[in-house]
Amino acid sequence: MIELTGHSLTIDEVRRVCLNLEKVTISNESMEKVKASREGVNQIVMNHETVYGINTGFGKFSDVIIDNGDVRDLQLNLIRSHACGVGEPFSETIARAMLLLRLNALIKGFSGVRPELVKLLAELINKQVHPVIPQQGSLGASGDLAPLAHLALVMIGEGKVFGEHGEIVDTKTVFSQKEITPITLQSKEGLALINGTQAMVAVGIISYIEAEKLAYDSEWIAAMTMEGLQGIIDAFHPAVHEARGYPQQIAVAKRMKMWLQGSGLITHQGQKRVQDAYSLRCIPQVHGASWQALDYVKEKLEIEINAATDNPLILQEGKQIISGGNFHGQPIALAMDFLKIAVAELANISERRIERLVNPQLNDLPAFLSPSPGLQSGAMIMQYVAASLVSENKTLAHPASVDSIPSSANQEDHVSMGTIGARHANMIIHNMRKVIAIECICALQAVEYRGIDKMAPKLREKWEKYRDIVPSITNDRIFAEDIDRMSIALQSN
User: 52 an active-site residue?
Assistant: First the structure.
């Protein structure tokens, strides 16, 4: 059980709630902040004060005053009208992350919602009721309006949710089965639910978790490729990397030496060649640079998952209310674009190592690792697939954050496109997993030709584990199935 406070959520706790389906509870202190914030909203309504989003329209309609008798309809209309996302839905994992992050933001006590609303969010998480949220339609400013509106629809008993087997079903059906009571939105609550960056952050944080694991996996796979190509280990000498000084580069070199310790397949300078190609020799420099980017992304996500991104903010327990722009996704948009580039580069250098494993002009292994070169193509087309994936990644890696388009009659005249950046980052990560799966398959085959008895002990353990998943290439077969099995294994193990 994870206790949420609004300011202490960690990436590891997000992992536990979203991937391990751990339950959540709200701290007593946070619930008191929610109550105090709500009292501030109640006072505004009672005193007939004019405050954006409580008794005014939204966006360009902010100058339209709403009668007190219509404030509930205002919130309901807001959710229904803004729930116009399109495209395939986000995964259940990402939808669950959106619930968690929106809950954590609201219990900070700056949004003016009732305790009943945050309790319902916690109930949805704990009973595993995950909204069906279309992926496309957010500009990444004014909040992730369309995606979060689909989340809010579920809270009022409308919209769709995922069933027990991943099927899409009516919210009302699941609420009835799980004895959940929908909420009737009151003043400010609809706006509080959709003003925020939780769609891009949810995609971003799940993507980061996956990217971090892939970055570690890419190192032992690269080390196995080093063995398959009898690479020169001297390039990982700590003095080389300390001379440059980047901590991440030093760490990658250290891990590479750890994986290769005790190997009888690696070589030293001048033993077989003087220098390796860059895709081998520069693993610490290239992977290390991607780790620098990942560290940056992690830092920004850790701030944002505990941020108040609502507008207006209810400050000093309702004594001060300020309209600002914390809903603007620019900090995360830039981080997501950085994540895209970092992961794309890990895939790029992996594809170059695949080429060195299969190209008979670049090694002394059987051509394309084929058991019968010419009669059988072996890994030839697997390299084509990797090349296709990294080329697709280059298109996806174009920064989304450099684009903007005005909306709401130019009232909202600069937007982040951060959700697009996050979605593309997630797509690049899925492509990268396929690329390193292909490198792993090729590396397994290469070291088999060299002699697995000479492998480094830690890499031998990996070889034995993943050989059970993808058998040796003794004949041409449907390698798409091998790539899928290896990708799934890398994702789950």
Answer: yes
Check if CATH label 3.40.50.720 holds for domain 204-492. Answer: no
Residue 348 has pLDDT above 90, yes or no: yes
d(CA 127, CA 462): 37
Q: What token pair was written down for 417?
A: 């496109």
Dihedral sign (CA 394, 400, 402, 404): positive
**Cβ-Cβ contacts under 8 Å for 229 (sequence gap 6 or more):** 276, 280, 356, 357, 363, 446
pLDDT tens for 136-178 read: 998 988 889 999 999 999 999 999 999 999 999 999 999 999 9
The pTM score is 0.94
* 134 DSSP 8-state letter: E
Contact between residue 258 and residue 458 where contact means Cβ atoms under 8 Å apart: yes
> Is the CB of residue 13 less than 8 Å from the CB of residue 2?
yes
pLDDT at 118 over 70: yes
Residue 100 half-sphere exposure toward CB, CA atoms < 13 A: 37
- Its CATH class, for the domain covering 2-196, is mainly alpha
Is 451 exposed, middle or buried, given 0-12, 13-18 or 19+ CB atoms closer than 10 A? exposed
Q: Kindly list the domain boundaries of the chain, sorted by start residue.
A: 2-196, 204-492
